[in-house]
Amino acid sequence: MYFIGVDIGGMSVKAGLVDEKGNILLKDTAVTRARASAEEIVADIAALVKKVVEAGGIHLSELGGIGVGSPGSVDDAAGVIRYSCNINFERTPIVALLGDALGVKNVKVSNDANCAALGETMFGAGRGAKNSVTVTLGTGVGTGIVVDGRLLTGNRSAGAEGGHVIIKAGGEKCGCGKRGCFEAYASATALMSRTARAVERHPESLLAQVAKERGIDGKTAFIAAKQGDKTAKRVVNDYIRYVGIGLVGFANVFYPEVFIIGGGISKEGDALILPLKEFVKKNAYGAEFNPPIDVVAATLGNDAGIIGAAALAM
Amino acid sequence: MYFIGVDIGGMSVKAGLVDEKGNILLKDTAVTRARASAEEIVADIAALVKKVVEAGGIHLSELGGIGVGSPGSVDDAAGVIRYSCNINFERTPIVALLGDALGVKNVKVSNDANCAALGETMFGAGRGAKNSVTVTLGTGVGTGIVVDGRLLTGNRSAGAEGGHVIIKAGGEKCGCGKRGCFEAYASATALMSRTARAVERHPESLLAQVAKERGIDGKTAFIAAKQGDKTAKRVVNDYIRYVGIGLVGFANVFYPEVFIIGGGISKEGDALILPLKEFVKKNAYGAEFNPPIDVVAATLGNDAGIIGAAALAM
Predicted ipTM? Predict the structure, then answer.
């Protein structure tokens, strides 16, 4: 059986023909006419889906279903995109619109980060785990939670905003206006601020030199730390500890089989993943009586969105 | 249809005949022979269930099912009580044992706090909510999480230990050995420590006087605060803020319809519940776009365990 996964982005829409094992057989993209009407955008998506299905040599009627991942606030159960900052969706009943346009009954929608988490869990780094928490360490911190093989999105899909769980009451200011959110400590942005502060305080450090040479981004501290710089090591260790504290919080609520770490910072690989695994093992409640929780880096990259969207419909 | 709810405690086992609406039609108790063998304890429970069913004038074969709530670590899916500090259970397959002893097929087990949360959600303060988080503010802090009408217990039922989510990295020491846990700020024990510290620092306060008269417990600060004492108000406000920070964390993950507050501290009623509701409204992520989250005090009292255990089997 074949499925279509649609990954809507601010610049382009990607659609892929996906088999039951999560393999993308072929994919195609179209420009997102972000300022066109919602109906026009959906018509573009429908046309793209048709194109992909035809290129695959099958008929729409043979599809097992279509899954759609969209940025913004999505009401999964209602099949509605409530709003999206960069695309002209507002209370857009995308499931009904797309289903009608294509004559396909099984159409599902969720937030794009949730789709990526589902894709990684079922077919990527999670390798079929039933319970996972995917944490995306990027400009912000996104979370996607899978419980018993299904996405947990909260009442009216308003939950799963794990980046805004408070891990340090009264702590650093977060972009959301509150203090002490996980995101204010675990995002790439937070790591960059910490790096910048350390550079200022320790102009003599190798970290400062690396920062001067290549600028400050999410990699700077990791690069200098690998070369043994103490200042950089402190920045990296603090950062990992805070990420770990967030993971432990999720562990104590969900006790997932696996944490999947995505986003730019996840490219640091073992330098990030191994100490995180150790931290979770040491600090998760009841870890001494329970099976260990694995921590792995995401593996599907940009395809996670398409595969996960398709998985929504499986 | 009738169900049996069994609530195992360290001192006594309670069993109730419960209808589909969560009403307890009759109940009975037996002494828990905590140091007898697990088989003997289960035999006692079976005898108690038989007694209750017979007193109800029905036959075991007419039961819709039996639910059991037990203290300790329970593997819900396997139907096994892994261990319990105060009762002689160790990897006790209670579902199989009790089912065989009584010839009843539908037997379920969960942790007692989870059962209480399910009972309150379906038939108590939650009044049929589909998504709830029950937070019990007692000696420790327990959590019970209901998602889509079902208990969320995590992989191998090792989760839902929300008392040990870290809300203040590097903060107060918790009984579990870690720092900054929700429990270290929101338990009655934490409130008592805060009260004691405030009394020491402000011997001139009304709080100190109240403490002298009646000793320090979870009520002391609330009593003095109601009489307008500034020191007591600060203690209470700080306490409520920390409870609120924990709730906001759960809100951002689950966005439940309702928070149900149980445990001794919940008896403070509006003095606790109203400011918590306000705090959650102000601080939950996306609360301005989403339906408000209710905060209510638990209403079923000691019956929550029986009713919730019965609800497990519904």
Answer: 0.86
